[in-house]
Amino acid sequence: MFHQVKGGAAMGFLATKPTMIITTLHDNGIVNAGVFGAYTGISPTQIAIAIGTSSHTYKNIIKRKEFVVNIPGADIVKCLKIIASDLPPEKSEVEEAGLNLKKGSGIKTPAIEECAAACEFIFEKEVPIGYHNLIIARIEGGWIRSKFLDSDGRIDIFKARVVKDFKYPKPLYVLPGEVAEG
Asked: pTM of whole model > 0.85?
Protein backbone atom coordinates (compact mmCIF):
# COMPACT_ATOMS: atom_id res chain seq x y z
CA MET A 1 0.00 0.00 0.00
CA PHE A 2 2.77 2.46 0.96
CA HIS A 3 6.28 2.63 -0.51
CA GLN A 4 8.66 3.80 2.26
CA VAL A 5 12.06 5.36 1.51
CA LYS A 6 14.91 6.85 3.54
CA GLY A 7 16.84 10.02 2.81
CA GLY A 8 16.94 11.93 -0.45
CA ALA A 9 14.95 9.39 -2.47
CA ALA A 10 11.80 10.98 -1.02
CA MET A 11 12.58 14.30 -2.74
CA GLY A 12 11.09 12.83 -5.92
CA PHE A 13 7.69 12.96 -4.26
CA LEU A 14 7.96 16.77 -4.32
CA ALA A 15 9.24 16.98 -7.91
CA THR A 16 6.19 18.82 -9.27
CA LYS A 17 6.07 21.46 -6.48
CA PRO A 18 2.46 20.65 -5.59
CA THR A 19 0.31 22.38 -2.98
CA MET A 20 1.29 20.86 0.33
CA ILE A 21 -0.01 20.46 3.84
CA ILE A 22 2.63 20.88 6.53
CA THR A 23 1.97 19.02 9.77
CA THR A 24 3.70 19.91 13.04
CA LEU A 25 3.11 19.17 16.72
CA HIS A 26 1.89 21.67 19.31
CA ASP A 27 3.32 21.48 22.85
CA ASN A 28 0.14 19.69 23.95
CA GLY A 29 0.74 16.92 21.37
CA ILE A 30 -2.13 18.00 19.10
CA VAL A 31 -1.29 17.96 15.38
CA ASN A 32 -1.27 21.32 13.62
CA ALA A 33 -1.68 21.54 9.85
CA GLY A 34 -1.32 24.39 7.37
CA VAL A 35 -1.66 24.69 3.60
CA PHE A 36 1.34 25.99 1.65
CA GLY A 37 1.65 26.67 -2.06
CA ALA A 38 5.36 26.74 -2.69
CA TYR A 39 8.78 25.63 -1.61
CA THR A 40 12.23 25.94 -3.11
CA GLY A 41 14.52 22.97 -3.61
CA ILE A 42 17.97 24.14 -2.54
CA SER A 43 19.87 20.85 -2.79
CA PRO A 44 19.09 17.19 -3.53
CA THR A 45 18.17 16.75 0.14
CA GLN A 46 17.01 20.21 1.29
CA ILE A 47 14.05 22.51 0.81
CA ALA A 48 13.30 26.08 1.90
CA ILE A 49 9.79 27.29 2.73
CA ALA A 50 8.72 30.85 3.56
CA ILE A 51 6.54 30.67 6.68
CA GLY A 52 4.91 33.56 8.53
CA THR A 53 6.55 34.02 11.94
CA SER A 54 3.22 34.47 13.72
CA SER A 55 1.87 31.11 12.53
CA HIS A 56 1.54 27.96 14.63
CA THR A 57 3.44 26.07 11.92
CA TYR A 58 6.47 28.35 12.26
CA LYS A 59 6.45 28.28 16.08
CA ASN A 60 6.14 24.48 16.17
CA ILE A 61 8.97 23.95 13.66
CA ILE A 62 11.31 26.23 15.62
CA LYS A 63 10.49 24.47 18.90
CA ARG A 64 10.29 20.83 17.73
CA LYS A 65 12.86 21.01 14.89
CA GLU A 66 10.81 18.77 12.57
CA PHE A 67 7.79 18.73 10.26
CA VAL A 68 6.08 16.71 7.55
CA VAL A 69 5.23 17.89 4.04
CA ASN A 70 2.06 16.04 2.98
CA ILE A 71 1.04 15.97 -0.69
CA PRO A 72 -2.75 15.94 -1.07
CA GLY A 73 -4.58 14.59 -4.08
CA ALA A 74 -7.83 15.86 -5.58
CA ASP A 75 -9.85 13.50 -3.40
CA ILE A 76 -9.20 15.69 -0.33
CA VAL A 77 -9.09 19.12 -2.01
CA LYS A 78 -12.27 20.17 -0.17
CA CYS A 79 -10.41 19.62 3.13
CA LEU A 80 -7.80 22.27 2.27
CA LYS A 81 -10.15 25.11 3.23
CA ILE A 82 -10.58 23.63 6.72
CA ILE A 83 -6.85 22.93 7.07
CA ALA A 84 -6.04 26.50 6.02
CA SER A 85 -8.25 27.91 8.81
CA ASP A 86 -6.65 29.40 11.92
CA LEU A 87 -7.62 27.09 14.77
CA PRO A 88 -6.37 27.40 18.35
CA PRO A 89 -3.69 24.91 19.52
CA GLU A 90 -6.37 22.94 21.38
CA LYS A 91 -7.91 21.85 18.06
CA SER A 92 -6.36 19.94 15.18
CA GLU A 93 -7.06 21.03 11.61
CA VAL A 94 -6.54 17.40 10.57
CA GLU A 95 -9.24 16.19 12.95
CA GLU A 96 -11.58 19.05 12.00
CA ALA A 97 -11.19 18.05 8.33
CA GLY A 98 -12.09 14.43 9.16
CA LEU A 99 -8.69 13.09 8.10
CA ASN A 100 -6.51 10.44 9.74
CA LEU A 101 -2.90 10.48 10.91
CA LYS A 102 -0.11 8.11 9.89
CA LYS A 103 2.75 7.66 12.36
CA GLY A 104 6.09 9.12 11.28
CA SER A 105 8.86 6.68 10.44
CA GLY A 106 11.85 8.76 11.54
CA ILE A 107 10.28 11.67 13.47
CA LYS A 108 7.49 12.15 16.02
CA THR A 109 5.30 14.35 13.82
CA PRO A 110 2.69 12.29 11.97
CA ALA A 111 1.63 12.57 8.34
CA ILE A 112 -1.89 12.68 6.89
CA GLU A 113 -2.86 9.17 5.84
CA GLU A 114 -5.21 10.22 3.04
CA CYS A 115 -2.44 12.12 1.21
CA ALA A 116 -0.73 10.74 -1.90
CA ALA A 117 2.74 11.09 -0.32
CA ALA A 118 4.53 12.59 2.66
CA CYS A 119 8.12 13.71 3.31
CA GLU A 120 9.65 14.05 6.77
CA PHE A 121 12.01 16.96 7.39
CA ILE A 122 14.45 18.06 10.09
CA PHE A 123 14.87 21.81 10.62
CA GLU A 124 18.38 23.11 9.88
CA LYS A 125 18.18 26.90 9.99
CA GLU A 126 16.07 29.94 9.29
CA VAL A 127 16.70 33.17 7.42
CA PRO A 128 14.61 36.25 8.30
CA ILE A 129 12.94 37.78 5.23
CA GLY A 130 10.40 40.21 6.69
CA TYR A 131 7.01 38.94 7.86
CA HIS A 132 8.09 35.45 6.82
CA ASN A 133 11.22 33.52 7.67
CA LEU A 134 12.77 31.11 5.22
CA ILE A 135 12.87 27.69 6.89
CA ILE A 136 15.61 25.43 5.58
CA ALA A 137 15.23 21.72 6.27
CA ARG A 138 16.81 18.38 5.37
CA ILE A 139 14.76 15.40 4.29
CA GLU A 140 14.83 12.28 6.47
CA GLY A 141 12.64 10.09 4.28
CA GLY A 142 9.03 9.62 3.43
CA TRP A 143 6.36 7.47 1.84
CA ILE A 144 4.18 7.44 -1.21
CA ARG A 145 1.16 5.33 -2.01
CA SER A 146 2.61 2.60 -4.24
CA LYS A 147 0.01 3.20 -6.96
CA PHE A 148 1.29 6.80 -7.39
CA LEU A 149 4.99 5.94 -7.80
CA ASP A 150 6.37 6.32 -11.33
CA SER A 151 9.24 4.30 -12.82
CA ASP A 152 11.77 7.04 -11.88
CA GLY A 153 10.90 6.96 -8.17
CA ARG A 154 8.91 10.18 -8.40
CA ILE A 155 5.26 10.99 -7.94
CA ASP A 156 3.01 10.43 -10.97
CA ILE A 157 0.99 13.66 -10.87
CA PHE A 158 -1.75 12.27 -13.09
CA LYS A 159 -2.40 9.14 -11.04
CA ALA A 160 -2.07 11.02 -7.73
CA ARG A 161 -4.11 13.97 -9.06
CA VAL A 162 -1.92 16.44 -7.16
CA VAL A 163 -3.18 19.99 -6.79
CA LYS A 164 -1.44 23.32 -7.25
CA ASP A 165 -2.48 26.74 -5.93
CA PHE A 166 -4.23 28.69 -8.63
CA LYS A 167 -5.82 31.62 -6.84
CA TYR A 168 -5.07 32.68 -3.29
CA PRO A 169 -6.69 33.35 -0.83
CA LYS A 170 -9.74 31.95 -2.66
CA PRO A 171 -9.39 28.16 -2.42
CA LEU A 172 -8.98 27.45 -6.13
CA TYR A 173 -6.58 24.73 -7.26
CA VAL A 174 -5.32 23.38 -10.57
CA LEU A 175 -5.34 19.64 -11.15
CA PRO A 176 -3.65 17.97 -14.09
CA GLY A 177 -6.10 18.95 -16.86
CA GLU A 178 -8.74 20.73 -14.71
CA VAL A 179 -9.46 23.39 -12.08
CA ALA A 180 -11.12 22.48 -8.74
CA GLU A 181 -12.54 24.73 -6.06
CA GLY A 182 -11.60 23.85 -2.46
From this structure: yes
